Every structure is written in C-alpha cells, then in structure tokens.
Amino acid sequence: MDEYNPFDDLAGVDPETLEAEDEKTERQLEGWVANLAIGLGLLFVLLIVIVVLAIYPTQRITATVTEMNHTFTENETRIEARPEPITFQFLLLDPDTYADTRLTLLGFLQKRELDRGLVKYYLLDDYFRELELRSVPQADRERFPLDAKTKYPYEVTGIVRKSYQSIYLDVETLFITTRPVNETLIVIEHNRSETETLINYSTEKTTVLKYWSARLFGPTKPCADGSAPDSCAQRPPYFCTKRGVLIADPVTCGCPEGKELRGEECV
C-alpha cells in the first residue's frame, strides 16, 4: 500500500482560493480578539465604577437647632381729648379776694321767675353751683331759658360784687362758647415677638452603592425627625427615603418659608 501524503489533498486546488480562505480565517480571529478586548475593557470599567460606588461616601446631612427671636416694637400714638370741668368754686370759696374785680367765667345760663313777676338770672357750673347775674343787657336776656340751663356754655365777663349776704356779677358781656378740652398725647407701646425654630437632626455618611441599595431595596423606616419614609420630611426641603435617610430635595418637597426655588436650590 502506498503511504498517505496530506499534500495530495491539495492537488488540483486553486492557490487563490486557499489564500482567500486564509484571509477570512485571519479576519475572524482578529474580530474575535477585538470583541474580547472590548468586553474585557467594559468589564474593567464596570468593576471600577462598582468599586468607586462602594467606597465613595455620600454627604452627611446635618441641620442644627436654630431659634431666632424677632421682637418688634410698635408705637401707637393718639391724642386723647378730655373735657375740662366748668366750675367757679374758687370765687364762691373766697369772694373777698375777687370783690370789685373784673372776671370772665364759664357756665350755663338760667333764669327763674319769682313772686310778683320778678325774674333773676344765674350762671351755673357742672356741680350745680350758681352765681347771680345782674345788669344783664336787655338783648341777651332771651338767651336764658326758664328753669332750665343752656345746652352750651357761655363766657360771661363782669365785675364781681359782694354784699353782706351774697355775691353776684355785674354783667358786661356774654358770648356762647364751647367747653374747654384738655388734649393729652398718649403713646402706647406694643411688643410683638416671632420665633423661628429648626429641628435638629443628622444623617450618617454612607457609600453611594449602599445608599441607593437601601433606598431601592431596603426595608422602610421613619427618619430621625419622625418623618414618614418615602415622603417629604416635616421641614422642607428634605425628603425621607424608604430607608429613613434624609436628603435635600427642594424640587420635590419645596423650600422653607422665606426662600424660593431657583433651579434645584433654595435661595
């Protein structure tokens, strides 16, 4: 039997065909090597990302108790007008001092009709004291109401006369006037206080991977300030995650009073 020669199989094969098949095989090998390199590169990058996420810490969130007391002082100013009492007690208590002296007195007019048609004229004060008026001008006598007193006070000027048993005023002029008023400036001070309080709470630092794993897959629990998990905290702009971690999320939970949202921050 003749010995087998492998090169006998190639007898009659076109050399160009052999060269084309070799090039195809070489390209397939190069493509496989390239894909393997890309896959290994992506795997390496993924491992780096996992390592970074596993060791990179998140930022600790801390809020300090702050109480700000604002005290405002407001002054209320008003003028209080008090009518002054009308009295001529000073004259009745010491008639000798004012005898034959010209005085101007305030009071209310009244006339009384006595026996035999005699009419007397009087000046009354707020305390029902009376002073007889004599020599009243004829034109002014109609101003005196009978057994009643005028609604408005009058200013009466005359000479004080004193007799043995009485004191009276010789009238020169009388004019209607208004009751004197004592104006007092009153300042009332009002103190108004406002208190703003922030609750104190703090979150521990953790890794990004652990944080998101706990947030997505961990059991739910309330946050340190008592806020329900997976909801906005009691104090904006913080959000309480399912794991009980407070994070600043002004877009979701809004801003505290006195601040407004600009972009993703409270200013």
Structure description:
The model has no long low-confidence stretch (mean pLDDT 78). With 267 residues, this protein is an alpha+beta fold. It has a 5-stranded mixed beta barrel with strand order 3-4-5-7-6. A 3-stranded antiparallel sheet has the order 10-11-12. A two-stranded antiparallel sheet has the order 1-9. The chain has 5 helices and 14 strands. It has helices spanning 15-55, 89-93, 95-98, 208-217, 250-253; strands at 62-63, 66-83, 102-113, 119-124, 130-134, 154-162, 167-176, 181-198, 201-202, 231-232, 238-240, 246-248, 261-262, 265-266. It is rod-shaped, with a radius of gyration of 55 Å. It has 3 domains: 14-49; 58-69 and 195-266, no CATH class; 85-179, Bacterial OB-fold (OB fold (Dihydrolipoamide Acetyltransferase, E2P)).
In short:
This protein is an alpha+beta fold and 267 residues long.
